[in-house]
Design goal:
CATH architecture of the largest domain: 3-Layer(aba) Sandwich
CATH superfamily of the largest domain: Type I PLP-dependent aspartate aminotransferase-like (Major domain)
CATH class of the largest domain: Alpha Beta
Structural class: alpha/beta
Bound molecules: pyridoxal-5'-phosphate
Largest sheet: 7 strands, mixed
Shape: globular
Number of domains: 2
Radius of gyration: 21 Å
Distance between the termini: 6 Å
Number of strands: 15
Strand order of the largest sheet: 4-10-9-8-7-5-6
């Protein structure tokens, strides 16, 4: 477990106690939230560095304040490392997170009211891909594509037909809750046919893309956005990669269009994470993430559970609790009592409300960082199966929790 310096304990015992409790929680539970991970100590150290004290509005060599010799070096290093990791022509590492990165792309590539076509939220898309409660659905003429009701996968011919009808100025692909490979090449063909800009949002799968265990959109999409903190295992942050022709528009949209000073501590931590991701160890990690998701899916199927699309190609599985006549929220609450932390999630064509949907989303990025393998996934599937069989039995859930804690003790967290 992390060794915290005694300084904060003396300066602020109240916050210290909360931080210790969170360390404990992260150590003693099975964290299956698909967007979460454990960063290395090196990444955490950079995040907690004195770069947090520095204002650096602008870009390397073109800043508005003095004192930038080190911030310029760290931002250039982060961008160079990202370029070599993903093969991108241009990188902007300043977005505060994934949502602001997408906002910047809208700002750069579109005028308010322009048409966009993205995957609907209930089918696995993200809020910022045109959903009505988000800026992207409010200030743009947003249209959504679904998945095929039978396969529960993207029907590329149907997306193409819809694109011909809608004629979006920007087509968006990428998802937050889609367990299958995304065919970026096919999306690029559709975008080209209707003369749309293609935005590929790889927030969830960036680590898999970097490691080559999921196809990359870099050569086929006009713009690629990502977070740095999901499978990529870096600090909280966002990043935009694009063709050189869009570099100026993207950079201007991020600053001064939407943001002020970048968080240079996060930029430094991203540089560390990109260095880590450009290693054989990380490639093995990403492959293990995918192998683990497959093993977990098989384990869950063995326990008689239903999976959306029947399985997975990436780091996540989406459980459909409809056959169990269970709500996702009650299931997630019971699982948490058992020490297994997940989120409830809508499934395609969900008959329940978004706040209490029919699904559970499960990802393997965090547990794989702890060194868990396929055998461990079998055990986790067992914990989930037992908890879902006993969601109203607090005694049974406590017993599972004790087993989960004993299991977790063998897998230290960074
Ligand atoms: C997580 C996610 C985002 C947003 O990231 P935040 O850092 O939470 O703002 C954007 N797009 C997709 C597809 C995501 O999964």
């Amino acid at each position: 477990m992390t060794q915290r310096s005694p300084e904060i304990q003396q300066a602020d015992p109240e916050v210290f106690e909360i931080l210790e409790a969170e360390d404990q929680r992260q150590h003693t539970t099975v964290r299956l939230i698909a967007s979460e991970n454990y960063t290395s100590k090196a990444v955490m150290e950079a995040t907690g560095s004195r770069l947090t004290n520095k204002y650096s509005e602008g870009y390397p060599g073109k800043r508005y304040y003095q004192g930038q010799e080190n911030t310029d070096r760290i931002e250039r290093l982060a961008c160079e490392r990202a370029k070599s990791l993903f093969g991108a022509e241009h990188v902007n590492i300043q977005p505060y997170s994934g949502s602001p990165a997408n906002l910047a792309v809208f700002y750069a590539m579109l005028e308010p009211g322009d048409k966009v076509l993205g995957m609907g939220l209930p089918f696995g898309g993200h809020l910022t891909h045109g959903w009505k409660v988000s800026f992207s659905g409010r200030f743009y003429d947003a249209h959504a594509y679904a998945v095929d009701p039978t396969t529960e996968q993207i029907d590329y011919d149907a997306v193409a037909r819809q694109a011909r009808e809608v004629r979006p100025k920007m087509l968006i692909c990428g998802a937050s809750a889609y367990p299958r490979t995304i065919d970026f090449q096919r999306f690029a063909e559709i975008a080209r046919e209707v003369d749309a800009v293609l935005l590929a949002d790889i927030a969830h799968i960036a680590g898999l893309v970097a490691a080559g265990v999921h196809p990359s959109p870099i050569d086929v999409a006009d713009v690629v956005t990502t977070t740095t903190h999901k499978t990529l295992r870096g600090p909280r942050g966002g990043m935009i990669m694009c063709k050189a022709e869009h570099a100026k528009a993207i950079d201007r949209a991020v600053f001064p269009g939407l943001q002020g000073g970048p968080h240079m501590n996060a930029v430094a931590a991203a540089a560390v994470a990109f260095g880590e991701a450009n290693t054989d160890d990380f490639k093995a990690y990403a492959q293990q993430v995918v192998d683990n998701a497959r093993a977990l899916a098989e384990g869950l199927l063995t326990h008689g559970l239903r999976l959306v699309t029947g399985g997975t190609d990436n780091h996540l599985v989406l459980l459909d609790l409809t056959p169990r006549e269970l709500g996702g929220r009650a299931a997630a609450t019971a699982l948490e009592k058992a020490g297994v932390v997940v989120n409830s999630n809508s499934i395609p064509f969900d008959k329940r409300k978004p706040f209490d949907p029919s699904g559970i989303r499960i990802g393997t990025a965090a547990v794989t960082t702890r060194g868990m393998d396929q055998g461990a996934m079998g055990q986790i599937a067992g914990f989930i199966g037992r908890a879902l069989d006993n969601i109203d039995d607090d005694t049974a859930l406590s017993a599972i929790r004790a087993d989960v804690e004993a299991f977790c003790a063998d897998y230290p967290i960074p």
